[in-house]
């Protein structure tokens, strides 16, 4: 049977880039999204990039009947599950919404998959499940669960649910992917991250400052135990991350059981490293000021990415300059995101 992958959250940032790479790898893809943080314009642009028609449905994972109908329309061979809410601050204000959407939405998806005897799943987890690092780089054996916010806890709880499911029925094939910090955009400059309102994350904020939409970047803390005192993270090009999903999809096809991989580069870069690299790529100044630390932030967080290389044959290859150039192309060509 030809492979048909259901991509939940397909219109979003990581989802849309992953659909492009899945189609390029020869998979047939169906996308669903409730459009709470995306627009169907991204799917139209994915179709333009790939030259393929991609069925895309406006479906909410909390609507189980709509999910059931979708499973009647298409015969899926696996699911890549990106759909969910991801704003840390909002999750502290609206914990019930986050548990309902992320945990409840995943439960509906798993139940409908089970009803259809479909047991192949890739799940978007996050490095946030590691909490405050006890050692660096973070490998997959690092203790988890010390998350300080409801968003991070939903990722941890879903991982636990998926492990329990796999233990109860080892015929499930599940790949848990812990992403570090996805940035950049597709080379075409036609799809990218499109935050609604002021961005919470560093790179979209830098890009919007360079394009003149924001006055200046607040650098949250310059007194961390890092080379220049600012926070260090493992930024990974979103196309590398998308290719990690293609590699994970191939792993599922080997009937792999339950597997877990970090998707990062293994390199830590500081806030000021990112500002400098973006200024170089864009030729624009990024005005910034040093501010107090952001509550809940850790000083450094970066991956040991060796397991994914060993078992998935996957490695991030796109460097910092490419991340910044590609993000700048997307931001400068689409100053208002998908609305422009
Ligand atoms: P995104 O917000 O761009 O994509 C998520 C998509 O899910 C959105 O298009 C949204 O409209 C959709 N969605 C939300 N609730 C839904 C529901 N109830 N039913 C159907 N669709 C729904 O986010 P992203 O950056 O592409 O992240 C994708 C996944 O990766 C998320 O699960 C996120 O938590 C996880 N993740 C992201 C990052 C990151 O920094 N971007 C890091 C680690 C993990
Ligand atoms: C964010 C999420 C985390 C998620 C991770 C991976 C938050 C609080 N946490 O964390 O749950 O798993 O992405 O994608 O959103 N910074 C500034 N100024 C800004 C924004 C950020 O100085 O305006 C700094 C931060 O202090 C940090 C670095 O930039 O040192 C990266 O921040 P951000 O992009 O928000 O990512 P994470 O903190 O890693």
Helix content: 40-55%
Per DSSP, the total helix count is 11
Order of helices and strands: EHEHEHEHHEHEEHEEEHEEHEEHH
Total strands: the figure is 14
The N- to C-terminal Cα distance equals: 40 Å
Largest sheet: 7 strands, parallel
Silhouette? globular
Strand order of the largest sheet: 3-2-1-4-5-6-11
What is shown here, in short?
The chain is of the alpha/beta class. 40% of the residues lie in helices and 17% in strands. Nicotinamide-adenine-dinucleotide is lined by residues 9, 11-15, 33-38, 60-62, 82-86, 101, 105, 124, 126, 179, 181-182.
What is the strand and helix layout of this fold?
Blueprint: E1 4-8, H1 13-24, E2 28-33, H2 40-50, E3 56-58, H3 64-73, E4 78-81, H4 88-93, H5 95-115, E5 120-126, H6 150-168, E6 173-179, E7 181-183, H7 202-210, E8 217-220, E9 232-233, E10 235-237, H8 238-252, E11 258-263, E12 269-270, H9 271-282, E13 288-291, E14 300-301, H10 306-312, H11 320-333
Parallel strand pairs: 1-2, 1-4, 2-3, 4-5, 5-6, 6-11, 7-10, 8-13, 9-14
Antiparallel strand pairs: 9-12
Helix pairs in contact: 1-2, 1-8, 3-5, 5-6, 7-9, 9-11
The protein binds nicotinamide-adenine-dinucleotide (NAD) and uridine-diphosphate-N-acetylglucosamine.
């Amino acid at each position: 049977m030809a492979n048909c992958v259901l991509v939940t959250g397909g219109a979003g940032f990581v989802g849309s880039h992953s659909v492009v790479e899945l189609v390029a790898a020869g998979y047939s893809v169906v996308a669903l999204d409730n459009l709470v943080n995306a627009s169907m314009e991204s799917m139209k642009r994915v179709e333009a990039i790939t030259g393929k028609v991609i069925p895309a449905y406006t479906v909410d994972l909390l609507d189980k009947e709509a999910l059931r109908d979708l499973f009647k329309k298409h015969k899926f061979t696996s699911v890549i599950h990106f759909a969910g809410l991801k704003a840390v601050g909002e999750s502290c204000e609206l914990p019930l919404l986050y548990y309902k959407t992320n945990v409840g939405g995943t439960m509906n998806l798993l139940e409908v998959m089970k009803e259809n005897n479909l047991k192949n799943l890739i799940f978007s987890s996050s490095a946030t499940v590691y909490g405050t690092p006890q050692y660096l780089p973070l490998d997959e054996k690092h203790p988890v669960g010390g998350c300080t916010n409801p968003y991070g806890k939903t990722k941890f709880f879903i991982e636990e649910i998926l492990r329990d499911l796999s233990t109860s029925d080892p015929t499930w094939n599940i790949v848990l992917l812990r992403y570090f910090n996805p940035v950049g955009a597709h080379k075409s400059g036609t799809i990218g991250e499109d935050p609604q309102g002021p961005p919470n994350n560093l790179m979209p904020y830098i890009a919007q400052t360079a394009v003149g939409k924001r006055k200046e970047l607040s650098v949250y803390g310059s007194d961390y135990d890092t080379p220049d005192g600012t926070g260090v993270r493992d930024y990974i090009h979103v196309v590398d991350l998308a290719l990690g999903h293609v590699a994970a999809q191939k792993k599922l096809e080997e009937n792999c059981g339950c597997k877990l991989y970090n998707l990062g580069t293994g390199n830590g870069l500081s806030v000021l490293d990112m500002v400098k690299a973006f200024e170089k790529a864009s030729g624009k100044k990024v005005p910034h000021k040093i501010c107090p630390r952001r509550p809940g932030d850790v000083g450094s967080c970066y991956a040991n990415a060796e397991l994914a290389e060993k078992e998935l044959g996957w490695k991030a290859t796109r460097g910092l300059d490419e991340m910044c150039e590609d993000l700048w192309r997307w931001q400068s060509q689409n100053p208002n995101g998908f609305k422009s």
